[in-house]
Amino acid sequence: MTARAAPTGRSAIMLIGDCHGAALVATDGSVDWCCLSRFDADPVFWRLLDAAKGGFFQIHPESEYEVKLAYLPDTNILRTTFRTAHGQVALTDFMPVGRMPGAPADDYANLNAPSWLVRIVQGLEGRVSLRVRFKSAAAEFAPTSRGTRPHGAAVEAGLIIDRADVVGTLDSSIEIAAGGTQNFIVSTKASEHAFAIGEVAALLSTTRAFWEEWLKLCCYDGPYHDAVHRSALMLKLSTFAPSGAIVAAPTTSLPEAPGGERNWDYRFSWLRDSSLVLNALAPLGYSAEARRFCEFQRLCCIGTLPSLRIMYGIGGETELPERTLDHVEGYLKSRPVRIGNAAYRQRQIDVYGEVLDWLFMLRQLGAPSDATQERMTREIADYVVLHWKEPDQGLWEMRCEPRHHLHSKIMCWVALDRALRLSGANGIWSKTRDAILAAIRERGVDRAGGYLTQAFGFKETDASLLLTCALDLPIEKEVIRRTLEAVERELRVVDYVRRYLTHDGLPGAEGAFLICSFWLVDALAFAGRADEGRALFERLIAKSNDVGVVRGRNRSGDRGLSRQFSAGLHSPCTDQ
Question: What is this structure's pTM?
């Protein structure tokens, strides 16, 4: 698929990474977001959030061009092809990564990555004049970060070109003829690594082999093969190799609606979101990722038991203070721009069910239990017994008064149900599980409509209730069917599903989340409407962009990188 673009036009952004950090590459050859070493580091490029001040690294033809983007097959290496009236060039973007020397054949979780961004320009036809623009402005993003974040202050990026390094800015032209090549490396220690400019071909070969070999571990062989493989590759990009954490998204402060203030930092590891990712990866055969996340989960949870944070830093940090960067304009002038996330202090009691449901699935996949997991199971179950009657903020992290969210009650039931399956009979757990179910039936079902509601005392519904059918909750199928119909009636807009319509303590309108559309697919199948579910699924897949990633449009018309992206459920592209 091709698109005509002017030299200054940007329409979409594609993700690359090395399971440590990530970068976003626009269709005009501009890297507008890049965090090296850690997803949550201060970015070396951040024009995505400020068109005037933010750093970037752009390579594109100086004359009008057509552009085509594609990942190299079975990899997360991006290839952008520019065609002009004078010739054709290819721009290959990747972040080098490979398995650790001597690691087991299936170990793709402990990785070797130099934390570089590599760009290769190759002449394919004729002779093309290219403009190269580089602006490093890392220290200007969050100038007071020093001492307040676990990884320290921002470090300026340097550009290595022809064994010379550039720090600051560059604006020049180069000419590439057919058969010619020009290599670039972005590094925070450019002068120390100038020798690597001659090793770019080897870096590309190693990185390509890494992704191809990793994908070969996928045991899925069925319908929608290409979509499953591309989704798996996107999910792998969200893993943080040093700890085993899984980030919700590689970006911060991209708005739910342009100009709005629902802009959050998602470069952390949510227990819930991580469970969703692992529920996708583990059945595909990626046991190494499951093992590494269990190690991370153990580190985090043991440190705060019996209480759990809903999210942790990717290094296991338990404090994620939120602050705004008032000097940053924001994506499409959407303010505030935030780093950190105050939701880490919220009570979201559904997370206890998410953790034990994940441990139960892991056990079903044949993973052995250990003393730490057994302790976690007991303490989580005992905590739920004591606290399930309390209100919370719910899985959507509403910033309003706590409510008795029904999804949270359901997940409390799940926590005790899975604890009983994992640890055996326990009279208190069993009695409390039954009491939770009775409360759901008594207070969580609308008396007139016979459907599950968002919270006790509410008539409105919630997209999270679409998950109920997959949780083994012993509630009447007719209630589930009516709940599905109520969600469709209240929240569905053609192929998209809003999360909820109730007040959540924030200004602005609530948009649709693409993950909710896929939850709807499952719910339709459960309700005996499999043909409708399949048709919706295929329409959603058909919305994939030209690199094979599904794009979602919310009610306001924006396409954005949100936390749903990191679960493989939202597109890594955003219109500008």
Answer: 0.90
